[in-house]
Amino acid sequence: MVAVMRRDLRLSVRQKQDLMNPLLFFVMVVALFPLGVSPESSFLREAGAGILWVGALLATMLSLDHLFRFDFEDGTLEQTALQPQPLFLLVLAKTLAHWLVTGLPLVILTPLLGLMLYLEGNSVAVLCLTLLIGTPVLSLIGSVGAALTVGLRAGGVLLSLLVIPLYIPVLIFGTGTVMAASSGADVSGHLALMAAMLVLALVLAPLAAAAALKISLSAS
């Protein structure tokens, strides 16, 4: 698992355009939204959590198609499936590497963008915490869709259709937690539900993605 993670991280560093595209997309979505809707501070303070969460969701989804595709095209994925180690552990390693280069930078960038949207300090802190819990869930769920569509030429559109309905609960609880924090309510229940989603995704998503990869490899 460590070797697979190191390899994927080195490849991501070498392909700087794939590393920067989700971050630039995230910043552009957040920066353009006030121009297209309303620059009023009261509106942005109320909608800021939703804007940042939608931007993070779309930025994560933008990079999902590359999760297995490069390895599939050069034959590395087939060799990985033949390894004696359980495939779901190797899939988990690749997914964690994807989150480290996509989801974690989004979380680090969020406080600056949150202040730009007039969010208060407590709301920004809760927002970063929800993204820290929720973005791994997005990557794990997305790995299942990426595994199912890895052998398709136009898999990006199908991948979006597959994973967006599964992303909706994470989006609802992520934004709901920040809104509850901004109103002074207790958010421990919201965070516990998001943590439960993360544990469930960690247990089930690698198994489902490994099974989907075997189906895709056998079909190709």
Summary of the model, kept short:
The protein is an all-alpha fold. 85% of the residues lie in helices and 0% in strands. It has helices at residues 2-14, 16-36, 41-62, 66-73, 76-81, 87-101, 103-116, 121-148, 155-182, 188-219.
Can you describe this structure?
This protein is mainly alpha-helical. The protein has one domain (2-219). It has ten helices and no strands. The protein has helices at residues 2-14, 16-36, 41-62, 66-73, 76-81, 87-101, 103-116, 121-148, 155-182, 188-219. Helix 6 packs across helix 10 (188-219). The chain is elongated. The two termini are 25 Å apart. The model has no long low-confidence stretch (mean pLDDT 88).
What are the main properties of this structure?
single chain, mainly alpha, 85% helix, elongated
Question: Helices and strands in order, then pairings?
Answer:
Layout: H1 2-14, H2 16-36, H3 41-62, H4 66-73, H5 76-81, H6 87-101, H7 103-116, H8 121-148, H9 155-182, H10 188-219
